[in-house]
Amino acid sequence: MSTLWKRLVARACFVVAGAVVVAWPAPAAAEVTYTKDIAPILQRSCEQCHRPGQVAPMPLRTFEEVRPYARAIKNRTALRDRMGVMPPWMLEKNIGIQGFKNDRSLSDDEIQLIADWADSGAPRGNPADLPPPLDWASGDEWTIGEPDLIVKSKPFSVEAEAPDWWGAFETVPTGMTEDRYIAAYELREINDGREKEAEYEGGAAFSASLGVVHHGTVTVLGSDGRPVPGGCCPIHEAGRNADVFDAEAGKLLPADSNLMFASIHLHANGRDTTGHLEIGFKFHPRGYQPKFNSTGLMVVTNHDLIDIPGGASNVMIDASHVLQENLKVTVFEPHMHAAGVRFCLEAVYGTVTETLNCAGYDHSWVLGYAYEDDVAPLLPKGTILRVIGTYDNTRANRNVVDPRNWQGGGHRSVDNMNLLLGQGISLTDEQFAEAVAERREKLGVTGRQVVVGCPTCGQPAATVAPAGGLVAAPSLLDIADAEAFAGTWTIDLAGPAGPLLFALDVSDVNGKVGATLNNDILGSAAVTDITRNGDDLTLSWEASSPQGALPLTMTLTPNGDAMQAVLDFGEGEAEGTATR
């Protein structure tokens, strides 16, 4: 054995309990290079904005363009879900639903690759490894593709040091000569601010792409001057992405309609700026009819309840809303102002509270997160939605102008808001039951598995047994007055303490209405106190409880082939659907 080899072995060996363990050096990690590892990431998640004519301040298409920013790219991507992250995507990946149509975020492995590349000197690599360049036809493409219709606002101007302004822009005609349904929608601001040097520094942070329309509403007015039901357009916000609506829930843009800009928030960018808004629409084919109705979803804190002391951090403000109809949530979109740093959405159903999603927040770059169809929350009526905003009014928050000041609610950036600007699809009871069944089948749900965002997916189909052994007794109500209610029904109710399943049998007892009910918790009963009130059938009885007799009243209202059911138990109500 050579002397060199003996030295190497002596260094690599040590004796443990008489055994010799050889520690061989780990193989060298493969070099991370721009051509092989970094360029594909930038093409997929960065070039859409980082190219000439787009909102980003510099292009990132070639090694020569990227190399000077290697350290900055490492730092910005490492922010993950915090303010300033690039690419802009602040959804927290360790909480709630994960599955979004417009997800352009980086994986942990990709973030580490970028860090390793920057730390190793940002080498170019083998040119043969470089992916073909993306073909960007020009600098002014629309995300949704070339629109079928573009509507422009009237021009507006904002001085370099102007205070925040909010108000209305002039209404403009769409020029529509026929009714069409909207498949996709995109709003962009065109201004000359990026062509000018800043006239001052300091003050509030500038918005994405130096836009001066920080956010604003766009409403479609029909020929009668009234808003079109269902609403067309999500609220525009700085940096916000385009919207592709559910394929079965297109939004109507009628003939002879107008666009109203009722509430616009302007925010100076340090330059005397003139611009206008362009609203692009992609339509469904002529003859298209939507299967479902789109709806907006707002959960908002009253401005008077927002109280953020000067110099305070981790201030939490919440708001709640009870759903009045079954809903499929299609878009999760937080809306706060300068002090906002984090926003969460919870769903409370019965005794269960779920966090659907949390996201970081940056007032200078706001996003709407569009759920994938097979994970979009399916929430039954009666669900309580709760939002929790977290605010940082300290110098650590770059968007806050002067953290010494108290902040309340209002329209300006230095004021605050706390609301969910969601979107969804309203569902009838039959449509909701069908959607839940499809979700259960797709996910392979069995028993009472927890499915985040679908509280009834984990409930097995109603199988409560009929009131065996009970014989219905006649009430005073003639069966001729309640024929629509006759039959055997399964009643699925959502109560404050969770689901309640009943088996109901309504029958003809010597020409009178008789009914038996069974519930696994409340037991069985033959109901004789049965009355008709307009369209409703009301059943009243008593159930046994540890506290004694519990008076109960169930009201049934026909709804097509099903019935709406409401159970009143004195201290509250449970609502749901009865099906044969």
Note the topology.
Blueprint: H1 3-12, E1 13-16, E2 19-22, H2 34-45, H3 63-66, H4 70-77, H5 108-119, E3 149-152, E4 156-158, E5 165-173, E6 180-191, E7 213-216, E8 219-221, E9 236-237, E10 243-244, E11 251-253, E12 258-266, E13 273-283, E14 293-300, E15 315-322, E16 326-332, E17 334-335, E18 340-349, E19 352-360, E20 369-370, E21 378-379, E22 384-391, E23 419-427, H6 429-443, E24 487-495, E25 498-509, E26 512-519, E27 523-527, E28 529-533, E29 536-545, E30 548-559, E31 562-568, E32 573-579
Antiparallel strand pairs: 1-2, 3-13, 4-13, 5-12, 6-10, 6-11, 6-13, 7-9, 7-12, 8-12, 14-23, 15-22, 16-20, 16-21, 16-23, 17-23, 18-19, 18-22, 24-25, 24-32, 25-26, 26-27, 28-29, 29-30, 30-31, 31-32
Helix pairs in contact: 2-5, 4-5
The domain tally reads 4
Low-pLDDT stretches? 1-24, 461-465
Number of helices: 6
- Gyration radius (Cα, Å) is 30 Å
Oligomer: single chain
General shape: elongated
Q: What key attributes describe this structure?
A:
single chain; 580 residues; mainly beta; Jelly Rolls; six-stranded antiparallel sheet; 6 helices; 36% strand; disordered N terminus
Description:
The protein is built from six helices and 32 strands. A hairpin with a 2-residue loop joins strand 1 and strand 2 (19-22). It is 11% helix and 36% strand. A nine-stranded antiparallel beta sheet has the order 27-26-25-24-32-31-30-29-28, with no helix packed on it. Strands 3, 4, 6, 10, 11 and 13 form a six-stranded antiparallel beta sheet that branches. The protein starts with a helix and ends with a strand. It is mainly beta. Helix 2 (34-45) crosses helix 5 and helix 4 (70-77) runs antiparallel to helix 5. Mean pLDDT is 87; it is low at 1-24 and 461-465.
